[in-house]
Amino acid sequence: MNTLTVRPATELDELLTAVRGAVARGAGWHETASYVGDALREHLPSPGLLPADLLSGERGTYRSHRLHVEPDGSFSMAAIAWQPGALTRIHDHVTWCVFGVLTGVEYEDLFTLSEDGTALIEAGHNPNTAGEVSAFAPPGDIHRVRNIGEETAVSLHIYGTDLNRVGSSARRFYDLPVQS
């Protein structure tokens, strides 16, 4: 899959350089997520990252636009346009993940797995607003993302894997009862 050409290129180039430096530190997943999170905070692109034609979609949907896959497969970058009412399945990830919200609110529901593995337990809710950056790594990264607002939200996600090779950052989907 080809990477998408976005604007402004210099913002993305500066972010790529910073992420390469963070990943090159060779730390564990949690530390790398933290370093990449710092890089994204410092170089969070402007809301105009995606052209207007990539922001449209039907209510309740989201579209991921792959922006970059590092040639050595060490990380990938995607921008996601979340339409009002968009909702992911509850999932975890194959590797560390960092995201920054460019516009709108990316609302995140957090879960833990019950001791016997038969249910999910609500662990919290995070309304991530424009300008906020979050970083996490497995284990303990079970969540779902949704847009509960009335405007399109856009977020930039950086994953510690080659999305061209693995296809998705999701490791597992959880279709278990949820306990509050």
Cα-atom radius of gyration: 16 Å
Unreliable residue stretches: none
> What is the residue-mean pLDDT, rounded to a whole number?
91
Side by side, the strands of the main sheet go 1-2-9-4-7
**Main beta-sheet strand count, sense and barrel state:** 5 strands, antiparallel
> What is the number of helical segments per DSSP (H or I, 4+ residues)?
3
Q: Please name the fourth-level CATH homologous superfamily.
A: Jelly Rolls
- How many domain units? 1
Q: Provide the succession of SSEs.
A: HHEEEEEEEEEHEE
Count all strands and give the number. Answer: 11
Q: In the CATH hierarchy, what is the class?
A: Mainly Beta
Tell me, briefly, the overall form: globular
How far the N terminus sits from the C terminus, by CA atoms, comes to 41 Å
Helix content: 10-25%
The CATH architecture designation is Sandwich
| CATH fold-level assignment | Jelly Rolls
Which class of secondary structure composition applies to the elements?
Answer: alpha+beta
Strand content: 35-45%
